[in-house]
Amino acid sequence: MKTCKHCKEKFKPAKFNQKYCFKNECVKAWVKDLKAKEWAKKKKKLKTDLKTLNDYKKEAQKWVNLYIRNRDKNKKCISCDKPLSGKFDAGHYYSVNSSSFLRYNLDNIFGQCTPCNRFLSGNLIEYRKNLIKRIGPEKLEYLDSVCRNEKRYTKEELKQIAKKYKDLSKK
């Protein structure tokens, strides 16, 4: 015997996964539950269909930044060399607005304390000195050479970036 999900009375199910008995009010509750589940699926699809390219950029950036925070949590600030503790930013050497090509490039993003990133505009002179130490002069030269390149990401590319760094962040 099972217990009806709606009226809580015991009943003998006709099928193994039956959750409602056959009382009128319980059947109505079952139909209402089915409609709610269908609407939830439809709403999720509508939300996905209505996402703009900007929404996908933000989502990808969110997961890349989380990955950077996880990667650099026991390191020092790229700019001031103070230990990163508590909340800290994923600071870009070439900013998101100035270089779309390097927006998600991991050699361009490092853990940075909030004062350096937000109040000292990235503290870029010190950032550059320490960036050379972390990635080497060859990679920095590459960043310098491509920093003005434009990159127009597609929704599919952004979905892949978000998925990749979401998976890496969970590990």
Quick recap:
The protein is mainly alpha-helical and 171 residues long. Helices cover 53% and strands 7% of the residues.
Describe this structure in words.
It is built from six helices and four strands. The protein is mainly alpha-helical and about 170 residues long. It has a domain at about 60-170. The protein has a two-stranded antiparallel sheet with strand order 1-2. The chain starts with a strand and ends with a helix. The model has no long low-confidence stretch (mean pLDDT about 95).
List the SSEs and their pairings.
Elements: E1 2-3, E2 10-11, H1 24-50, H2 53-71, E3 89-92, E4 109-112, H3 114-119, H4 124-135, H5 137-146, H6 155-170
How would you describe the shape?
elongated
Alpha-beta classification:
mainly alpha
Q: How many E-type strands?
A: 4
Sheet with most strands: strand arrangement: 1-2
As a whole number of angstroms, the C-alpha radius of gyration is 25 Å
Number of helices: 6
List the secondary-structure elements in sequence, H or E.
Answer: EEHHEEHHHH
Average pLDDT rating: 93
Uncertain residue segments? none
**Strand proportion:** 5-15%
Terminal-residue CA separation: 43 Å
- The helix content, as a percent range, equals 40-55%
Key phrases:
171 residues; mainly alpha; two-stranded antiparallel ribbon; 4 strands; elongated
